[in-house]
């Protein structure tokens, strides 16, 4: 029974020395001197703020993309024991001792280091030689821009890692297709493709470009499978479902999970939650939740409410009135109603309170039991402090003459009767009998007499003149063309009015609310709102000193100064390896020209290369050339401030194209021994130049050693490069 113990247990393993060596070299080049400089470098000032907010569990919104990349950076801070206490206010600020610099920069550096062996394996899976794969890895290893970008608390190296991992996983899956379909390894690489794609998109939306490329590639491969008569209909269906599950369903689920963790971690109110809806704000600890805690849920006749405009642009504001009236005549000579002003006020104020009144009754208190207001009910809105009724009439608004003026009615004994009836329309209702609810209901107020809709004026950035205290305009929109958030309001603060006398009511309006309400949003409701804000919230793009156009990137006519030592000439720049970038451009041009030549010749039934070599050439070009195109060309359509680092995913694919073209030239165009020898000698000289450029610009990639004035001037190979030289 125990006979197996008579022989020793032997475990054998195959180790790819190339892969191990490349991984070690990648770690050395990315991790060496990682804590230097111990100061804020370029966009660390931006991402560091989010890391601090994660450490303090404070909610934020970043319009640059999904939260997964930020969470990875925060994980580094968490592992390093960072408490979030650091003022990220300027580039070059020295880090205090509580900031774990090495830990914060570790994950981007590891991701950058692992891109080196990934490049090697991608070329191997594309069926190129180990020599070509080694060349691709070494080019990534010695690429100055990738080294610089991966050594700091930035997201591009993490994005490129997941992009390359997705490509490698798909290639491994595809290569297992013929002989090991539905095996354990087949499933592993297929699922890993979907996971890596989701992670890439979760880091930055730029990851969508490679995800779409792989989905298209998978679609083309499946289309070819449909024509395979050896596969049954059931087998094809299984292949289709497997790909749908791994490449669509799982990535979507994983993407949702990023937001779930993000929202679970950030449960405290902060400065960013003001752009969210009242319901979202009330779900956060502190902030609005403290103000609204204990409010009644259902709005009833006699309720005292504040109404917040849902749009929140150009800033959040509440329906407001005060004793001042519109001027008899505006600056342009137009006349007004001289009624009491109604505005949208961007601050909480007692004059934001309104009372919901039943037009058929005089009382301004909630009856017992309360009579809830439902969709379609007619109400009057009485200003709490001045007790005047919200009104509109056929008088042009002060800033929007095409719309009606909104006011609180003053009876001047002239031929302008009050028109103060409003119909409540619940926009997000589930049925026509829905009750108007605090925070949860989004409502429109439609004027009964004119059908105008109460709206926060769309004159973005404009405010009323001095007579209106620079507050925002409110109008009656006569031509309501469908749903727009500027016409939608929600009750934010709410209490049941108890005092019929005006003086007692004023005291009541100043007091806090007391009753209870549950306003917890579902995860999907919070996700939908947050996702929409990320996609639509745009900071004003301003011209940056180091911004550039997409055309500048190909020839590297631009650079970015990341950091400058306060006293010496030490500095860090985002600059690519000139020899590598020029070679990548040449490789792309050669690939395009050769592909067109081969296509024309094949059209004439002339086959210059074997069919398997042609298929290899096309597949490699689809991945490497296609990866460059989908990660580069979309930037010509984007209206945003662009920087050189946006080009790094594209140039990574373009670099992988270099050994593809070189091996093809060596195998199919260098036919004689002499030509092959000459070509090999040229390759050695070329690669030496790549290494020379890497060494030359290393001081600008690592920030050390400090260079003298003459050395810095010598590194300005292009007039368009902004190398920082101190005046003597």
TrEMBL record:
Name it: Protein O-mannosyl-transferase 1
Q: Which InterPro entries match?
A: ArnT-like_N, MIR_dom_sf, MIR_motif, PMT-like, PMT_4TMC
Gene that specifies this protein: Pomt1
Task: Please give the start and end residues of each transmembrane region.
Answer: 68-88, 100-120, 126-142, 154-174, 186-215, 236-261, 578-600, 612-630, 642-662, 674-694
Please provide the record's keywords in A-Z order. Answer: Endoplasmic reticulum, Glycosyltransferase, Membrane, Repeat, Transferase, Transmembrane, Transmembrane helix
Catalytic activity of the protein: a di-trans,poly-cis-dolichyl beta-D-mannosyl phosphate + L-seryl-[protein] = 3-O-(alpha-D-mannosyl)-L-seryl-[protein] + a di-trans,poly-cis-dolichyl phosphate + H(+); a di-trans,poly-cis-dolichyl beta-D-mannosyl phosphate + L-threonyl-[protein] = 3-O-(alpha-D-mannosyl)-L-threonyl-[protein] + a di-trans,poly-cis-dolichyl phosphate + H(+)
The source organism is Aegithalos caudatus
Q: Which pathway does it operate in? A: Protein modification; protein glycosylation
Which positions fall inside the MIR domain? 296-359, 370-427
Q: What is its EC number?
A: 2.4.1.109
The record's SMART domains line, in alphabetical order, gives:
MIR
Report the PROSITE patterns cross-referenced here: MIR (PS50919)
Family label: Belongs to the glycosyltransferase 39 family.
Q: Where in the cell is it found?
A: Endoplasmic reticulum membrane
Matching PANTHER family: DOLICHYL-PHOSPHATE-MANNOSE--PROTEIN MANNOSYLTRANSFERASE (PTHR10050), PROTEIN O-MANNOSYL-TRANSFERASE 1 (PTHR10050:SF51)
**Cellular component annotations (GO), alphabetically ordered:** endoplasmic reticulum membrane
